[in-house]
């Protein structure tokens, strides 16, 4: 009798209705895959997973956020100019979906800034006039909404790092911005395990580079 | 025993439930050319079940869902495909073909006979920055002179395109024709364009076969589109060796206002750089402009631009009939220009453009005691309505009206011309597939002065061969009223006519561009008659008529590459031109003095990070042009020597007292070659003087300081 109950109990789990955990499990699985991606195709494969979750769930902004984020990373991994713009177009579509589901969100504004910054990087000489102001405004808004978010300052710092010194850029000018971002990373606690929590390694990597250059 | 049964039953229940609940879906995703598409998202609608296609386009996944489902396949820049699928546990296999999305960025571009510089489109040949960093004087027309199809005519301003004179090219700003795009002419000294290249976000230069939206230009149009809202509030100072100026741009949330003014005086510069011209009063001028933009609700944009300039100069010209005498030439000029336009999206698929422009241009040219005066008052209005059709195709309807009130006088003789010109056009861009596009248009014009009308058909086709290359073809009829010089004397003329046939092959990769274009232009009904005897002395007087004719044919080649040499961006253009015409007071068909068989330009620029500067070199070569020699019975049979010019420019970006600064220096004719453009003869044909550039070398130095801005980011 006991065995029957145990067996019937385990049957329940086999046919499984995990709806509450299904979303979280799928999200966590895919978040782990991000670190292993190397090529643009790798990033797109994981982005596709997030897109499916986003479309199936319909009202969750996080999968759209990650779909967009991965297309930005795919753009960095690809060297063709036209392909980069195509990936960033898709990133814009997804971040706008996320924005419509969760307006005035600091991470979403940070991602918007990251996308327009990436647009600029494709052809800086010709594009800084068009995208420069937009990038600054997005990061500014992200910090206004949540001053504890370390990511906008990290991205601003990277931008300054690559700007020529004559324009007020360079490693020396980037250093204080990146250090401020690093302090925020040390204090930052994400609201839950699915919320964006990237960039700490990268900001440390840049600060190491700057300190070594001396 | 009982337990064994129990396990068997449970095992069967589990096993059968797993089997009947799982369907395997696999297949292959390709494009219309059967090429596999890796990374496509293949999934069941409203579920998590799905997978990305592999590098060979195959995919395979299983789902526990049952009943009916919808299989969706999506891939970036392709149309999403969906189809129903029955999830009954049997294996399913699908071969999916995805259709390309006809997005603006990706579609084939109609481009026979044209060069476009804009930061918006993908497949562009020129970038806006090129206009400023090419050649030696940051003048739009000089930069365009390094493109194929343009002839090098150093002694005159204007664009001489494929055997056409400068008057055969019209400059259009925000869709409306500009009557005087250049500063006033001085004999044998080229004038600059009035508009600063910084005003424009897009430049479209057509060397033939242009759209039905424009007319009254037998050869080509230069279409300039001004910037929209200024990006930020900014104050700037402009210091140059030839003058100084300042500007202030104020940006509000949905509008911006830019004001600038400048004063130029070449006297100090002429004191340093020896001039071949005997200047009495070096060119001095003042100019100012204001530029207002207002965003209207979501999609509308109202623009208003106004400028005023005035200036004067005087010089002594050697009189060839009397060597001991110099003629005193004095010029005073002023120009007022106003342009306003409004663009908006009306309903879902309808766009409206409407604009109005007004200009007054006055110039006084005096030679010794002879006084010549020319006043042009010009107004134009235009309206265009565009309706979007299926997949990027659209149709435009438009009308334009131009009114010219020109008066000219020479001593006691005076003449005037009132002309009203009305035109209407219908044109449609049709994207038959993502690879084939056609532009078909018709334009009809009426000239009150001539009391005649015409109908001009235009057709352009583009066929995309592969990812980067295209074949293009254009045909068109183009009409133009004879020049003011003729119409002031007599209205008994008809439209001059040109028929264009253009065919090209172009390859535009991400970092390399190649284009080869062949063209044939047939000129008909060109205005003939003797208006001035100078410079063609001793020629028989020709009565007024439209009996002129001519042809121009040739091949243009263009190659641009910014990948092969690290940080270096260069282009090479070559033109071959064979042209003859019989017009004005020509006694016979002859190659005109603004044409030559071979022209070549090489432009190279490189960004040097350590000194944060762009350094550029431009080399231009052209075979000698025809010039008139009264002693030669073969009209325009003489040829000047070949033209060679190597110029250098450097754009240095820095900061002065923490203000973002750009320093620009350029010098042309580094090799110091004595280029001869032609010869002027005395009336008896015995003495001649070469037409040379105003100075052996011309240098330009300028500094642009943007106040309060350290970082343009």
Layout of SSEs?
The complex is a heterodimer of chains A (214) and B (713).
Chain A lengths: L1 H14 L3 H16 L5 H18 L3 H17 L3 H21 L4 H17 L1 H22 L5 H12 L8 H17 L12 H14 L1
Chain B lengths: L1 H20 L1 E9 L9 E4 L5 E3 L5 E6 L3 E8 L6 E7 L4 E7 L15 E5 L9 H6 L6 H5 L24 E5 L2 E2 L22 E7 L13 E7 L7 E7 L2 E9 L3 E11 L1 H6 L5 E19 L3 E19 L7 E20 L4 E18 L2 E19 L5 E17 L2 E19 L4 E12 L4 E13 L4 E12 L3 H6 L6 E13 L3 E17 L16 E17 L6 E15 L15 E11 L4 E10 L3 E2 L10 E2 L3 E14 L2 E9 L8 E6 L6 E5 L6 E9 L6
Parallel strand pairs in B: 1-7, 9-12
Antiparallel strand pairs in B: 1-4, 2-3, 2-5, 5-6, 8-11, 9-10, 11-12, 13-14, 13-38, 14-15, 15-16, 16-17, 17-18, 18-19, 19-20, 20-21, 21-22, 22-23, 23-24, 24-25, 25-26, 26-27, 27-28, 28-29, 29-30, 30-31, 31-34, 32-33, 34-35, 35-38, 36-37
Describe, in short, the structure shown:
The complex is a heterodimer of chains A (214) and B (713). Chain A is built from 10 helices and no strands.
Features of this protein?
heterodimer; A: 214 residues; mainly alpha; 10 helices; 79% helix; B: 713 residues; mainly beta; 22-stranded antiparallel beta barrel; 5-stranded mixed β-sheet; 5 helices; 38 strands; elongated
Describe the structure in your own words.
- Chain A is mainly alpha-helical.
- Helix content of chain A is 79%, strand content 0%.
- Chain A has helices spanning 2-15, 19-34, 40-57, 61-77, 81-101, 106-122, 124-145, 151-162, 171-187, 200-213.
- In chain A, helix 9 (171-187) runs antiparallel to helix 10 (200-213).
- The N and C termini of chain A lie far apart (75 Å).
- With 713 residues, chain B is mainly β.
- Chain B contains 5 helices and 38 strands.
- The longest helix of chain B has 20 residues, at 2-21.
- The relative contact order of chain B is 0.10.
Runs of chain A in which pLDDT lies below 50 for 5 or more consecutive residues are 12-18
Rg over CA atoms of chain B: 31 Å
Q: Give the count of helical stretches of chain A.
A: 10
Approximate helicity band of chain A: over 70%
Structural class of chain A: mainly alpha
């Amino acid at each position: 009798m006991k065995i029957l109950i145990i067996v019937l109990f385990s049957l329940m789990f086999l046919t499984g209705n995990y709806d509450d955990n299904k979303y979280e499990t799928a999200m966590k699985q895919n978040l782990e895959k991000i670190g292993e991606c190397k090529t643009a195709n790798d990033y797109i494969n994981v982005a596709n997973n997030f897109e499916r979750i986003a479309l199936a769930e319909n009202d969750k902004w996080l999968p759209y956020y990650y779909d967009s984020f991965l297309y930005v990373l795919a753009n960095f991994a690809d060297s063709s100019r036209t392909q980069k713009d195509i990936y960033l177009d898709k990133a814009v579509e997804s971040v706008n979906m996320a924005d419509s589901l969760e307006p005035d969100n600091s991470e979403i504004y940070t991602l918007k800034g990251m996308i327009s910054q990436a647009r600029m990087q494709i052809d800086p000489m010709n594009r800084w006039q068009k995208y420069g102001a937009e990038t600054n405004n997005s990061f500014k808004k992200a910090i206004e909404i949540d001053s504890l978010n370390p990511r906008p300052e990290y991205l601003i710092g990277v931008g300054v790092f690559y700007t020529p010194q004559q324009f007020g850029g360079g490693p020396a000018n980037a250093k204080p911005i990146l250090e401020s971002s690093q302090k925020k990373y040390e204090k930052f606690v994400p609201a839950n395990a699915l919320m964006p929590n990237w960039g700490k390694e990268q900001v440390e990597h840049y600060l190491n580079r700057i300190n070594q250059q001396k | 025993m009982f337990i064994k049964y129990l396990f068997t039953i449970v095992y069967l229940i589990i096993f059968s439930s797993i089997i009947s609940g799982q369907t395997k879906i696999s297949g292959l995703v390709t494009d219309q050319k059967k090429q596999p598409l890796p990374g496509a998202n293949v999934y069941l609608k409203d579920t998590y079940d799905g997978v990305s296609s592999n590098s060979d386009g195959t995919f395979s996944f299983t789902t526990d869902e049952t009943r009916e489902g919808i299989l969706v396949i999506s891939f970036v820049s392709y149309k999403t495909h969906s189809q129903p699928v029955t999830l009954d546990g049997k294996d399913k296999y699908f071969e999916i073909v995805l259709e390309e999305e006809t997005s603006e960025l990706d579609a084939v571009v109609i481009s026979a006979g044209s060069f476009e510089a804009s930061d918006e489109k993908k497949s562009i040949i020129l970038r806006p920055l090129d206009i400023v960093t090419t050649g030696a004087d940051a003048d739009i027309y000089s930069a365009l002179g390094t493109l194929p199809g343009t002839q090098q005519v150093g002694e005159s301003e204007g664009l001489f395109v494929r055997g056409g004179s400068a008057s055969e090219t019209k400059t259009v700003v925000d869709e409306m024709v500009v009557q005087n795009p250049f500063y006033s002419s001085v004999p044998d000294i080229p004038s600059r364009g009035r508009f600063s290249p910084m005003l424009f976000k897009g430049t479209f230069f057509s060397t033939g076969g242009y759209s039905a939206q424009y007319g009254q230009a037998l050869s080509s149009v230069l279409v300039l589109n001004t910037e929209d809202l200024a990006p930020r509030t900014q104050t700037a100072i402009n210091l140059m060796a030839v003058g100084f100026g300042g500007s202030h741009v104020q940006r509000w949330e949905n509008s911006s206002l830019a004001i600038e003014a400048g004063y130029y005086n070449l006297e100090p510069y002429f004191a340093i750089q020896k001039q071949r011209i005997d200047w009495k009063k070096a060119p001095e001028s003042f100019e100012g402009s204001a530029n207002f933009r207002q965003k209207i609700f979501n999609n509308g944009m109202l623009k208003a631009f106004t400028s005023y300039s005035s200036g004067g100069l005087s010089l002594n010209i050697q009189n060839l009939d009397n060597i001991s005498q110099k003629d005193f030439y004095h010029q005073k000029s002023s120009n007022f220009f106003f342009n306003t336009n409004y663009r908006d999206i009306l309903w879902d698929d309808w766009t409206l453009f409407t604009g109005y422009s007004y200009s007054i241009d006055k110039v006084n040219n005096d030679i010794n005691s002879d006084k010549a005066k020319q006043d042009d008052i010009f107004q134009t209005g235009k309206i265009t309505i565009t309706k979007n059709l299926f997949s990027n195709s659209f149709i435009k309807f438009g009308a334009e009206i131009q009114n010219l009130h020109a008066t000219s006088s020479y001593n006691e003789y005076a003449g005037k011309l009132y002309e009203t010109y009305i035109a209407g056009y219908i044109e449609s861009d049709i994207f038959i597939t993502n690879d084939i596009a056609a532009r078909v248009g018709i334009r009809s014009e009426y000239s009150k002065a001539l009391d005649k009308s015409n109908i001009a058909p235009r057709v352009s086709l583009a066929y995309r061969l592969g990812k980067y290359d295209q074949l293009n073809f254009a045909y068109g009829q183009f009409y133009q009223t004879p020049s003011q010089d003729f119409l002031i004397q007599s209205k008994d003329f008809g439209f001059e006519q040109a028929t264009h046939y253009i065919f090209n092959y172009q390859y535009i990769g991400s970092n390399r561009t190649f284009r080869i274009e062949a063209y044939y232009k047939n000129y008909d009904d060109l205005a003939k008659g003797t208006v001035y005897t100078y410079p063609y002395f001793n020629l028989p007087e020709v009565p007024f008529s439209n009996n002129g004719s001519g042809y121009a044919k040739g091949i243009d080649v263009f190659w641009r590459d910014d990948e092969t040499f690290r940080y270096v961006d260069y282009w090479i253009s070559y033109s071959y031109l064979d042209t003859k015409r019989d017009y004005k007071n020509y006694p016979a068909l002859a190659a005109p003095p603004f044409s030559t068989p071979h022209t070549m330009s090489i432009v190279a620029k490189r960004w040097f990070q350590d000194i944060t500067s762009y350094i550029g070199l431009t080399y231009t070569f052209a075979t000698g042009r025809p010039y008139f020699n009264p002693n030669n019975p073969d009209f325009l049979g003489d040829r000047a020597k070949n033209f060679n010019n190597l110029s250098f420019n450097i754009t240095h970006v820095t900061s002065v007292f923490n203000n973002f600064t750009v320093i620009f220096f350029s010098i042309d004719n580094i090799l110091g070659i004595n280029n001869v453009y032609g010869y002027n003869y005395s009336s008896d044909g015995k003495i001649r003087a070469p037409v040379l550039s105003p100075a052996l070398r011309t240098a330009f130095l300028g500094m642009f300081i943007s106040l309060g801005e350290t970082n343009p980011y």
